[in-house]
Amino acid sequence: MEGLLPKLPLADWIDRFVDWLTVTFAVVFDAITVSLEGIVEGLFAALAFIPSYILIILIGLLAWKLATKGIALFAVIGLFLIDNLGYWEGMLETLSLVLTAVLITVVIGIPMGIWASQKNTVKQIITPILDFMQTMPAFVYLIPAIFFFSIGVVPGVVASVIFAVPPTIRLTILGIQQVPADIIEATEAFGSTTTQRLLKVQLPLAMPTIMAGINQSIMLSLSMVVIASMVGSPGLGADVYRAVTQIQIGRGFEAGLAIVVMAIILDRITQNIGIKKQGGKI
Amino acid sequence: MKEQHVKLSVKNVTKVFGKNPKKALQLLNEGNSKTDILKRTGSTVGVNQATFNVHAGEIFVIMGLSGSGKSTLVRTLNRLIDPTVGEVLIDGKDITKMKKEELRNVRRKKISMVFQNFALLPHRTILENTEYGLEIQGVDKEERKKKALNALKLVGLEGYESQFPKQLSGGMQQRVGLARALANDTDILLMDEAFSALDPLIRKDMQDELLELQSAMEKTIIFITHDLDEALRIGDKIALMKDGEIVQIGSPEEILMNPSNQYVERFVEDVDLSKVLTASHVMKRAETVQIDKGPRVALQMMKKLGISSIYVVDKKQILLGAITADDAKTAAENGQTLQAIINPNVQKVTGETLLTDLFDKVSTATIPVAVVDENNRLYGILVRGAVIGGLAGNNEVINVLEKAKEEVAADQSSKGGTH
């Protein structure tokens, strides 16, 4: 085969495309960098301003209200452990990064999901792109992200969003399309407009599914923190990365454990938001 | 019947599902069968040239087995499904040619719908569900609440406003579905197998309630069902569908008595006749003797006819009672009048009584049960054999008696003429 057809210069094209993007959209990328940095740092400053024990109690209360007593207890003990081990600041940095990524995920993902659920062509275009985003190894787009956004927390956020947005979009589409056909028919029969149908019927009924999507996005963006630390994002990921490169097994385990505790707390709280809402009404 | 103006007129409505409706339509017009068309074009004919009129205030039942196209047909009436060709006129306006906006208005103001599986919004309370149609029209909160509460009251769901659909039984959920449709106060109500998902007892209650509501509201109702008993119970008119075609349209009685083809006949075969046939369908011509005749005349008549008792009427055919042959014989020997021996306590029913309801009376009566009108005028008698024959679906019995009824009616009018 070799020689019969010349090798497709795909790598070359991509290189040139990335160069072109970097130069042409420099202003746009700079604006994104500044605003994302602003959000992450603002969040971190706000969280760090609160004394750790007060924040622990607040998170405990939040868990109690949104989830169960058991989860609240776990959150309080787990967070005390993180504080005690000396990873409080790292945890807050990671939390700011994850929350920012999830915020962007929701802002992009839900409207995209709604759009795709209404138009089949959009869905058909979006689906392979989502597959691409989920399976393409993160490092591959991490490097161009450095070109666009320079080293720091922003390429980390962008990489997290790319990796975490597909489940929110997919489950928003699924949730809306799962609304039973006879209910849609009924809303049509009474003369609803498309917007009325969407806001009064489809979105409320899709909410539990959409919440499950957001929950998945949170977990995925958490799983990106170590990779994000390689391009300079601070936080628990950086602690793990440092420990691993210096073969400090104990410290690596501590930082890893802190990530696990965070993940469980975030997961249980967000999982229960959907269920509690559903349980009350449906 | 009140005003007879045509509320809804369906003309040649055809619906072809599939990729090549034009070819299918052409084949259909050439007289090819549904299966042929499916084979040749891959298209399914859902509804084939349906034409009918529904008058204001009428309950029009579309009946057929599943797959007969009845649900498709009803959905073309508010264009949940667009007909491939044909016209659907509501108050003279063709909705198939309407733009989105106009169509939405028709759906909001003129035509509402009740669904087989209720199709309630699970995240809304009963009140919010009932308000839905008004809410999307932008009716203000107070007014739509008032109207919704009123509709809920009509269907007997007062006090359930703040419940959620899942908390109610199937029958109650369908009442909510009905209330939601009523709240919009549209003239036309489409009911797509509205009671089919309910168990038989609840279904019967709902039918009764619908009829009761209808007597007060006089909506134009198009009711879809696969259940002939239901169709006969509530329909003013019934259209029978098969393979997308309407095979017969008529009153329940016409459908039963004169099935237009074998398909209808087979359908009608299984129906519980006792719930459809009335006393006037199976009654026989009554043999009577007038009160001013003597006992000997009565005795002579009974002997001639070979019967052991006879009804006594006055000149206006008003039923006075019955006498037996034995009593007449004694009276003749003792020189008494008929007045003295008449037994006024005879079993009477009206002509509209259903066979189910009079079976008990007929089986325990010692003399044939009398059929009278509201003025106690004697119309005919019920002989046990004919009632049982009617229950068994013996058409001969029914037809013979139909003739008898006509005779009675003719008799009646000629009597009226001599007055």
What does this protein structure show overall?
The complex is a heterodimer of chains A (282) and B (419). Chain A has 282 residues and is mostly helical. Chain A has a single domain, classed as Orthogonal Bundle (MetI-like fold), CATH 1.10.3720.10. In chain A, 86% of the residues lie in helices and 0% in strands. Chain A contains 13 helices and no strands. Chain B has two domains: 191 residues, Rossmann fold (3-Layer(aba) Sandwich); 140 residues, CBS-domain (Roll), CATH 3.10.580.10. Chain B is built from 18 helices and 16 strands. Chain B starts with 5 loop residues before the first strand and ends with a helix. The interface between A and B is medium-sized, with 19 and 27 residues.
Write a compact overview of the structure shown:
With 282 residues, chain A is mostly helical. Chain A contains 13 helices and no strands. Chain B folds into 2 domains: 191 residues, Rossmann fold; 140 residues, CBS-domain, CATH 3.10.580.
Please tally the helical runs of chain A, counting DSSP H or I stretches of 4 or more residues. 13
Distance between the amino and carboxyl termini of chain A: 61 Å
Note poorly predicted spans of chain A.
277-282
**Rg over C-alpha atoms of chain B, rounded to the nearest angstrom:** 27 Å
Largest sheet of chain B: 6 strands, mixed
* Annotated CATH homologous superfamily of chain A: MetI-like
The counted number of beta strands of chain B is: 16
Strands across the major sheet of chain B, in which order? Answer: 6-7-8-3-9-10
Oligomer: heterodimer
User: Which descriptor suits the 3D outline of chain B?
Assistant: elongated
Name of the CATH superfamily of the largest domain in chain B = P-loop containing nucleotide triphosphate hydrolases
| CATH fold node name of the largest domain in chain B | Rossmann fold
Provide the residue-averaged pLDDT of chain B.
83
| Structure classification of chain B | alpha/beta
Largest interface, with Cβ-Cβ < 8 Å?
A-B, 19 and 27 residues
Bin the strand percentage of chain A: under 5%
Alpha-beta classification of chain A: mainly alpha
Judging from the principal axes of the Cα atoms, what is the shape of chain A? Answer: flat
The portion of residues forming beta strands of chain B comes to 15-25%
Count structural domains of chain B: 2
Total beta strand runs of chain A: 0
